[in-house]
Amino acid sequence: MTKPAGTPRKKPEPRRRRLEAGSRDSPGAPPRLTQLALSPPTLRNDLGPVPMNAWPTPPESATRVTQTGLDPSRNFFLGSTSYAAVFNEEQPLPDTAHEQPSERLSGTPSASSQNMGHRHCQFALGHVIVSTLQPLSFFEKSCHMYFESNKASAIIGPLLLSALPQLRKDLELLATAGSDAYPLYAEITRNTARPMKVPSNMPPSEFHTLFTGVNLRWETLGLLLAITCSNAQFTSPRSSVFILEDGKQINKGDIIEDMMHATNICINICQTHGAVNDIMVWLLFQDMLVTSNFYGDNYHSTWRRLGDSVSALYATGIHCERSVCEGSSPEPFFIRELRRRLYAASYRFDKTLAIFYGRPPMLGWRYSDRKMPLDISDSVITSEDSELLTSELSKLDSAGWNMQGSIHPASFARLQCQLAVFKERLLEQSLAGEKDDEVVRNIEAISAECTQYWEGLPAHLRYETYTEDAAWVGRGPGLSIRLLAIYLDYLHLHFQTQRLLHRTTQQALPALLEVSLKLLCASLVSTKPDNRDYATRRHFPTMILFYCSPAAGVLALELRRCTINGVPLPDTISRADVIRNLSVLTSCLDWLVLPGDGNHKLCNELNKMLALVLDEVLNYEPPAKDMQEGREDRLVRAAGQSFLDMPMIEGLEPIPTEAEDFLNWLDNATWNNMDLC
Fold it and tell me: Where is the composition biased (Polar residues) (predicted)?
């Protein structure tokens, strides 16, 4: 975009093959909108009869759910302003008013369609998906490993793990069916096109019957692929998970690319047939994370997949809780908590990328009444023991936090979601572009409220309350890296606050430098020898890119300005501390960021710029003669040294040297990250 008009676009280089029971609100929660009403929409036409005895005999629950579930025509969420809302005030519209065009899909595919793929069902693509899921033992082991190591998963692990035994039977049937598999693929497609509703009386142990066995769906297989792929990305190539039972070694890079390809096939089939359900939202969200890790957070497909995820979330109605709770078929407890967590994770990721790109967010808190998840464990959420559930709920305080010092995946979802609310309010002030006194007061109020919220949190959730040993040894690296990330998220919110204030008044500079140094020092915990295991290191590039690099850029450029001008840094900032921590960062980034990470190239380029600025500061010599020389002339000559002479990165505008200009440039920079190392 920075090239002159008419310049031919450079062809992209080929990428290398590498690679909670009460409905309690949190304190200070924003006011909620009035409820939105559901109304009955779309039902896909069936694909035709398929022999039902082709599938393993389903559990009794699957049959019971099919007979007593919700009205199958209620598929998509329609709110109070929809085209059907006025008519629904008297009585629901007939199903025919919401029907989509018939697919005209034969239940018995012809020989040619089996080989070439049908324009709707794409039978040949089904074979690609099923063959990628072999051997299944690798996927089973990877799923268990994922939920054991991932301490902040947006998905409640037991709900998926309970489906694995039935999925093994389903995939074995598909793998051995040969040419007879095509009618089974058609049945999976027909299931995908159907609405998937969860009865209010369904126990957690039977949830998987809605999307496995005779109800097997393409989004189920896609979710299995995406979770396994995510686990592989954070697992060392030397891990035993990549060694099969027969001793064969799986190539990590190859299997990741194969799984990403098969996952995208599943998503395309599901989107073609209008799949709108919880599993589809899980799949799109998980695939967004995989895309981010593989290509980098500045890759456009990461933003685009976030849009797909948000679109599916809205269509499913996950953002609205009151209308479901007050309906004739309320959500089961475990589904309510699952949707709360998924909404919280999506909302947080949306705000993180919005700030990263400097773009308006896609999810707005003003348009949702979905509450925070309760701070209880996954095993309690999926337990069918009512006494256990009641006991655990009694241990929560009025805000929904557990008072036992335990940390659950839901704990992180609550923390990240509330911080994201402050981020959205900050984005409203930032992206408006106004700089009057009212905006300044609003920004200061947001900062004060955020500080009050953070200081009111239970101490075991605040990283800065731990010693290093108490965190990384006592809690373990899996929890500590998550606590650190949330602490950096909190500091980064104050960093962005001070940046906005600094645009209006120079009096904000000391506070901006202080929080920048805090961000830098906290990020450098990644350089400790005990924190260098593979899974932990895979989290650091995102921390460096989102939190550390902008803060380090402010410090380095302000240090350079003060050096050239011959003036000291503010009294609250130690020059020696700034130089020492910047030196540690630039010396460690070369080995800290693993080559297979999608953010590797961008982190390296930012590190080169920081190193050049730091070298210039350390090598700077003030003029020895002509002391009466004008100050402006000295600045011009000093500014012409190595930093301004650094090679320009292709596709980027010249790099500014003032701290605020540098950050604005960084916000709008575009990077070619297709060439992954």
Answer: 103-116
CA-CA distance, 203 to 12, in Å (whole number)?
A: 50
Long-range contacts of 390-399 (CB under 8 A, 24+ apart): 390/21, 393/20, 393/21, 393/22, 396/20, 396/22, 396/24, 398/24, 399/24, 399/26, 399/27
Q: How far apart are CA 166 and CA 178, in angstroms?
A: 20
- Residue 669 structure tokens: 């920079």
pLDDT at position 502 is: 87
**Residues 6+ away with beta carbon under 8 Å from 621:** none
What are the C-alpha distances in Å from 470 to residues 93, 466, 477, 483, 515? 60, 6, 11, 12, 24
Give, to the nearest 10 degrees, the angle between helix 123-132 and helix 218-233: 40
65-69, 115-119, 132-136: segment of lowest average pLDDT: 65-69
What distance in Å separates the CA atoms of residue 518 and residue 500, rounded to the nearest whole number?
Answer: 18
Give the C-alpha separation, 223 to 161, whole Å.
12
Q: At a CB cut-off of 8 Å and minimum separation 6, what does 333 contact?
A: 21, 381, 389
- Nearest Cα residue to 409 out of 154, 108, 669: 154
The Cα 253–Cα 237 span in angstroms is 9
Closest CA to 585 of 553, 562, 632: 553
Cβ contact 24:398 at 8 Å: yes
The pLDDT, as a whole number, for residue 450 is 96
Least Cα distance to 483 among 532, 539, 530, 535 occurs for 539
Dihedral angle sign, alpha carbons of residues 618, 624, 627, 631: negative
Query: Residue 396 in 3-state DSSP?
Result: strand
Phi, psi of 217 (to 5 degrees): -125, 155
Tell me, rounded to whole angstroms, the distance of Cα 67 from its chain centroid: 36
284: its two tokens = 């799109």
| Residue 410 CA: distances (Å) to CA of 20, 142, 337, 381, 483 | 8, 22, 9, 10, 13
Who contacts 205 (Cβ-Cβ below 8 Å, separation ≥6)?
162, 382, 384
CA 49 to CA 280: how far, in whole Å? 25
Lowest mean pLDDT among 64-78, 223-237, 295-309: 64-78
* pLDDT at 278 exceeding the cut of 90: yes
Cβ 372 vs Cβ 20: under 8 Å: yes
The token pair at 548 is: 């550390």
**146, 160 in Cβ contact below 8 A?**
no
Question: Is the separation of the CB atoms in 194 and 44 below 8 Å?
Answer: yes
pLDDT exceeds cutoff 90 at 143: yes
Q: What is the pTM of this model?
A: 0.78
Lowest mean pLDDT among 62-76, 127-141, 587-601: 62-76
**Residue 440 to residues 213, 429, 433: CA-CA distances in angstroms?**
58, 9, 12
CA atoms within 13 A on the CB side of 72: 15
3-state SS assignment for residue 243: strand
CB atoms closer than 10 angstroms to residue 261? 13
**Predicted local distance difference test score (pLDDT) of residue 664:** 59
Three-state SS string across 565-621, please?
Answer: HCCCCCCCCCHHHHHHHHHHHHHHHHHHCCCCCCCHHHHHHHHHHHHHHHHHHHHCC
**DSSP per residue, 46-101:** P-----GGGSPPPPHHHHHHHHHSS-TT--S---TTSTTHHHHTTSPPPGGGTPPP
Whether 347 contacts 391, CB under 8 Å: no
